[in-house]
UniProtKB/TrEMBL annotation:
Protein name: Uncharacterized membrane protein YhhN
UniProt keyword Transcription, yes or no: no
Segments crossing the lipid bilayer: 7-26, 46-70, 82-104, 110-129, 136-155, 161-181, 193-215
Family as reported in the entry's similarity comment: Belongs to the TMEM86 family.
A GO-annotated cellular component: membrane
Organism: Celeribacter baekdonensis
Lineage: superkingdom: Bacteria
Amino acid sequence: MQFDIDLGGGTAVVVLVAILAALAYLPLTYRDKTLWHSALKTVPVAMFAGSAAAQGAPGLLVAGLALSALGDWALSRSFERAFMAGLVSFALAHLCYLGLFIGLVETWRILPVILLIGFALSSELWLAPFTGHMRWPVRVYVGLICAMVVAALSLPDLFRLASVGALLFMASDLILALQMFRMSPDTKRARWAGYALWTLYILGQMTILFAFVGVKPHG
């Protein structure tokens, strides 16, 4: 099955502006966390949420995108409480996506379940020991995103783009975990990880959006 992206004029403009904002933010990932920095980071996914709402997309999709935008703002701030707020926002976003995807699953695929359980358990070795007092929030978050991806990979072919988007989203979260807990922030490797994280994240959110808005299957 192939897909044609068929966005209306207004939606196409919104998506284009969101992409341009995301590209503008890319070189700012390692700048000082000013209000301008935070606003620019929040714009792309907030615009995705607005576009989804305007086109009558499922409420859980709109909520997931809106909560993600809130998480973008929180994670762009330099306070520990802001990081926790961002973690909670993205955890709730994953719950929204999980609820949306579960409602569409017709047959569960066993292999993704096995692989994602293995991945979640493996994080006890390479991630949990380095998270300090954040260990339990991180554990819960890992469980939520793995559950979301399991549901996404069991979606019917009609929503295959959402499966791709969920995997991209998970890849960005994996990089974020390594960046936050396993990398020195002032290295070239950490900087390139930030660029990859942001690119995968935006592509993931956009692909999930396109799975429900403006994409028509054929073939």
